[in-house]
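Budget justification aside, the reviewers requested a transparent look at the raw inputs and outputs of the sequence design task funded under Objective 1. We therefore reproduce one unedited record. The lines immediately below are the structure tokens for a 243-residue chain.
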């Protein structure tokens, strides 16, 4: 496989809402901003006995729903939504084709993330499938095309269990409008750097303790506070204030 020949033949099709026919472009012609309004390439498929779960996730980053076609894809969306460096999350952003080893190949990446360091195109695949020759071949030519644009390419597999469960738990506190601004301001002014999670829950005794607890967890979600997420969250977890 010649990377240069693959790159020179690469094209991209983009679906736009309300339009029946996709737009066809050379892969290097499309700016990331043009993909922000892209409609997902596939629609959901359900059938009796299917081994995966499709659905929609309300993303705080998008202030809208993002689709996923498996629980593993949902985990990647959760991580993207939790990451303050990610400013956009687009599902199935485009259909890409290229001539590879004499044949026309096609692929639909799972996600496009806009981050502080540039666009990231993500393919989600269980770790045990990465050694499959067809999967490896598809990802290899996809990487060559995507990185030729100066974009980043990522293959995502199963994350650490404790970390995922912590982020999944914190996602329950992602909706900013549910939290009392006065409590959040009070927590911002409190000296929470180096205190335990249990101590932070008691940092604003003038307010309902249940609301303070929720606000602290919201600040962990938004990145105003951080802690070790590689083990299950517990009262003794030590917090750090993020500048």
């Amino acid at each position: 496989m010649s990377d240069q020949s693959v790159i020179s033949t690469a094209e991209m099709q983009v679906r736009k809402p309300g339009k029946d026919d996709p737009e066809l472009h050379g892969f290097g012609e499309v700016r990331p901003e043009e993909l922000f309004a892209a409609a997902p390439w596939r629609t959901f498929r359900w059938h009796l006995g299917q081994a995966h779960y499709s659905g929609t996730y309300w993303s705080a980053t998008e202030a809208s729903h993002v689709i996923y076609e498996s629980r593993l894809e949902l985990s990647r969306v959760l991580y993207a939504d939790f990451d303050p460096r990610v400013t956009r999350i687009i599902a199935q952003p485009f259909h890409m084709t290229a001539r590879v080893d004499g044949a026309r190949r096609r692929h639909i990446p799972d996600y496009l993330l806009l981050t502080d360091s540039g666009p990231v195109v993500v393919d989600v695949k269980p770790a045990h499938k990465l050694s499959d020759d067809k999967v490896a071949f598809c990802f290899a030519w996809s990487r060559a095309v995507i990185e030729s644009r100066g974009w980043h390419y990522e293959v995502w597999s199963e994350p650490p269990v404790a970390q995922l469960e912590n982020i999944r738990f914190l996602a329950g506190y992602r909706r900013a409008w549910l939290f009392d601004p006065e409590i959040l301001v009070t927590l911002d002014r409190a000296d929470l750097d180096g205190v335990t999670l249990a101590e932070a829950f008691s940092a604003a005794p003038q307010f309902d303790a249940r609301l303070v607890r929720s606000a602290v967890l919201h600040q962990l979600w938004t990145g105003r506070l951080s802690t070790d997420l590689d083990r299950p969250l517990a009262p003794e977890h030590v917090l750090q204030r993020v500048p």
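The chain has seven helices and twelve strands. The first strand starts at residue 11 and ends at 14. Computational costs for records of this kind are itemized in the attached budget.
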